[in-house]
From TrEMBL:
Record lineage: Eukaryota, Viridiplantae, Streptophyta, Embryophyta, Tracheophyta
Family: Belongs to the major facilitator superfamily. Sugar transporter (TC 2.A.1.1) family.
Keywords: Membrane, Transmembrane, Transmembrane helix, Transport
Protein source organism: Papaver atlanticum
Protein name: Major facilitator superfamily (MFS) profile domain-containing protein
GO cellular component terms, A-Z: membrane
Bilayer disposition of the protein: Multi-pass membrane protein
Predominant location: membrane
Transmembrane segments: 23-44, 107-130, 145-168, 175-196, 222-246, 266-285, 291-309
Sample GO molecular function, one term: transmembrane transporter activity
SUPFAM superfamilies for this protein: MFS general substrate transporter
């Protein structure tokens, strides 16, 4: 026997629990991608970098030959060899704490980790988690239809991410992120307005006076759907892929693994904070005000990108490294290597 609550969270609960067996299908279907990924990974070759580190150079070259033509292959092998030699010489001296000892690396990590944090604090997973609730606000009382429409929203997110992959090298990471954030601010304002209309007693009285059969409620519900669609349309091509792309480009090779892992940790810790706090904040100040808080965070994110995130489109790793040196020390920085630079200034 299944029971359905009538509280704020009960709206979401009804979508998932009022149909017997629904939750079992939800859990079961989520295992399908894992099985598909497992099967496909059986055919995935080892990383050329890893093979080269294990002195299996012929296997590494065989993998690279599937990617590059013969003219380019020799160059890539030489670059791989040089990069691994440099990492071998310095890997014992690089620690997590070294990220904060070098000014160049601090600036790079601030940009990368900041983008990861703002990706979550602008509310993407909150919107995705509660999209069935927003759909039901539109007057779609059918649980199946609400789920179907929320799946369409998730599909839009996937399509938007693919669009972002196409646009990111045409428009640049910084411009795409800023455009995305401006759209996020607009759409969250629309979404907050829809929640405000839903909770406004005076608005409900006007509706009762001039309309029949809940016409205003459905109208404000469609307003919420419009905000949701706009949000996904703007977020997914920009703030979806850009933080991950930027984090793969802004760190020197010596620090790339450490800083990339740390920034990804920032992303998931931020996700945990948002997911755990959303309902409590909504219960305390109201859903409309909670969404307005996300608007404020998105505005701060715009200024953050303008101040701290450089454009890395078309730049080599060496050019990006030089860019951080210029930001840290000005155009007259010393020409020593980045690791030596940070070591000498901090007495390591």
């Amino acid at each position: 026997m299944y029971t359905c609550g009538s509280s704020f969270t009960g709206i979401l609960s009804r979508v998932y629990t009022c149909v017997p067996g629904t939750w079992r299908w939800m859990l079961g279907v989520s295992g399908v991608p894992a099985v598909v990924q497992f099967i496909l990974m059986l055919f995935l070759p080892e990383s050329p970098r890893w093979l080269y580190m294990k002195n299996e150079k012929s296997e590494a070259i065989a993998v690279l030959s599937k990617i590059y033509d013969p003219d380019r292959l020799e160059v890539e092998v030489d670059l791989l060899s040089a990069a691994l030699e440099e990492e071998t010489l310095s890997k014992n001296s690089v620690k997590y704490t070294d990220v904060f000892k070098s000014k160049e690396i601090r600036l790079a990590f601030l940009a990368g980790a900041g983008l990861q944090a703002f990706q979550q604090f602008t509310g993407i997973n909150t919107v995705m988690y509660y999209s069935p609730t927003i759909v039901q606000m539109a007057g779609f009382t059918s649980n199946k239809l609400a789920l179907l429409l929320s799946l369409i929203v998730a599909g839009m997110n996937a399509i938007g991410t693919v669009l972002g992959i196409i646009l990111i090298d045409r428009f640049g990471r910084r411009r795409l992120a800023l455009t995305s954030l401006f759209g996020v601010v607009l759409s969250l304002i629309v979404l907050s307005g829809a929640f405000f209309l839903q909770s406004s007693q005076s608005f409900s009285e006007i509706c009762e006076a001039y309309f029949l059969n809940g016409g205003c409620k459905r109208g404000s519900g469609w307003f919420a759907i419009a905000g949701l669609v706009l949000y996904i349309a703007f977020f997914s091509p920009g703030m979806g892929p850009v933080p991950w792309a930027v984090n793969s480009e802004i760190y020197p090779g010596t620090y790339r693994g450490v800083c990339g892992g740390m920034s990804a940790t920032v992303n998931w810790v931020s996700n945990l904070i948002v997911a755990q706090s959303f309902l409590s904040i909504a219960a305390a100040v109201g859903t409309a005000s909670t969404v307005l808080i996300l608007v404020g965070v998105a505005v701060i994110a715009i200024f953050f990108v303008l101040a701290f995130v450089p454009e890395t489109k078309g730049l080599s790793f060496e050019q990006v490294e030089r860019l951080w040196k210029e930001r840290a020390w000005g155009s007259g920085y010393e020409t020593e290597s980045l690791l030596e630079n940070g070591s000498n200034r901090n007495g390591i």
